[in-house]
Amino acid sequence: xxxxxxxxxxxxxxxxxxxxxxxxxxxxxxxxxxxxxxxxxxxxxxxxxxxxxxxxxxxxxxxxxxxxxxxxxxxxxxxxxxxxxxxxxxxxxxxxxxxxxxxxxxxxxxxxxxxxxxxxxxxxxxxxxxxxxxxxxxxxxxxxxxxxxxxxxxxxxxxxxxxxxxxxxxxxxxxxxxxxxxxxxxxxxx
Length: 190
Description:
Layout: H1 19-29, H2 33-44, E1 54-57, E2 65-68, E3 72-76, H3 83-102, H4 111-124, H5 130-136, H6 144-157, H7 165-180
Parallel strand pairs: 1-3
Antiparallel strand pairs: 2-3
Helix pairs in contact: 1-3, 2-3, 3-4, 4-6, 4-7, 6-7
């Protein structure tokens, strides 16, 4: 595979993709129905995203991407292999940006706030879809989605320097029902 900007796969072998390939795939992600809808909902709320809001970089931190208040979204090119990886990560991080837009007092140092946004992002983005979990090596027929969301929330919130493992778990449990069932701006979980 050459550096074809319309390819769904990286030309790199085993090291993810180049920043340029990832940036091209981010642009394609912005045209997918779910990402487009979420972006439109943010713009309607006065939280439009500029052309540099989502960018590809080399992170070398073992994470797929991240959202940072006032800075935007980064997608870690070396962790991406396919268009679906990029689109899912863009969608996940856009949910954090949406939450930031709609919660005037969202405080990322508050473990409960962080846990709530992670619950929503993992549940609504499809990050815990059965097929995705199977590819990760997690095989469970019943209850896999909620188990995956909990696992991924703990991974993210415990990486927050303000949240110990105990604080992260307590925060996740405290906000679970309200945040898991909060599907805004969607009518139901996509």
